[in-house]
Write a structure and sequence with these properties.
Layout: E1 2-7, H1 11-21, E2 27-33, H2 36-46, E3 50-54, H3 62-72, E4 77-82, H4 87-96, E5 100-103, H5 108-118, E6 124-125, H6 127-138, H7 151-161, H8 166-173, H9 177-191, H10 195-205
Parallel strand pairs: 1-2, 1-3, 3-4, 4-5, 5-6
Helix pairs in contact: 2-3, 7-9, 7-10, 8-9
Length: 220
């Protein structure tokens, strides 16, 4: 039996995917999670055969979960999905080692095809994603700014974009406030951005969060 984990923050879709897996006689659901960090902690213990993974998740985004999986659970097959993709997100997903990439708008029949392809280590690209891959091949110029950030810097970037203060980020990552401030300063320097609003826009454009939080910290 193939053990499958679902990490998706939308309850309805998470439940639909869980029901869909019942049509696969050789698959068993090993867990469902709505938070990226919670899901990652579970993956380290479960070490599943496959993960159905949303990109835009709270606490830890799907792309960083995928990068960590490739280091610690390299044989796990991963099907990434999102409500929409940019060419930059697709580039990152391919480089990180996704087995499949599909749009949520593709529908459940297309998702079923993707799962069947990926569960045994095959590859699958949703229709819109396949078109992006063709465009990437035609125009190889790319924005590598997200890749140039360290894992810790990407964590800080996501928390900043989610509206957490520097002190809150320090607590969440078990680092000092000064270290958190240094990471945030380095982010602005590396990305040539100024202020929390700029970092938040960048995080949204690169698929780290779905949208800006209702209120943003105004600390300097």
């Amino acid at each position: 039996m193939k053990r499958v984990v679902i990490i998706e923050d939308e309850t309805m879709l998470r439940d639909l995917l869980a029901e869909l897996l019942k049509s696969f006689p050789l698959c068993t659901l090993a867990g469902t999670y709505g938070d990226g960090l919670e899901g990652w902690k579970a993956l380290q213990k479960i070490k599943p055969d496959m993960v159905l993974l949303d990109i835009k998740l709270p606490s830890l985004n799907g792309l960083d979960i995928l990068r960590r999986l490739r280091e610690q659970v390299p044989n796990c097959n991963v099907l990434l999905f999102s409500a929409y993709f940019t060419t930059g997100m697709v580039r990152q997903a391919l480089k990180a080692g996704a087995n499949g990439i599909i749009e949520k708008t593709a529908g459940l029949p297309e998702m079923e095809k993707a799962i069947r392809a990926v569960v045994d280590g095959g590859t699958y690209l949703g229709p819109g994603v396949a078109d992006m891959v063709r465009r990437i091949m035609i125009d190889p110029d790319k924005d590598d700014s997200l890749e140039n950030l360290s894992e810790r810097e990407r964590e800080v970037l996501q928390y900043v974009a989610e509206g957490y203060s520097t002190k809150e980020i320090a607590v969440k990552l078990s680092i000092s406030v000064k270290t958190a401030e240094t990471h945030r300063s380095n982010l602005m320097t590396k990305l040539n951005l100024h202020g929390i609003a700029g970092l938040t826009r960048y995080a949204i454009e690169h698929g780290l969060i779905k949208s800006a939080p209702p209120t943003l910290s105004t600390e300097g």
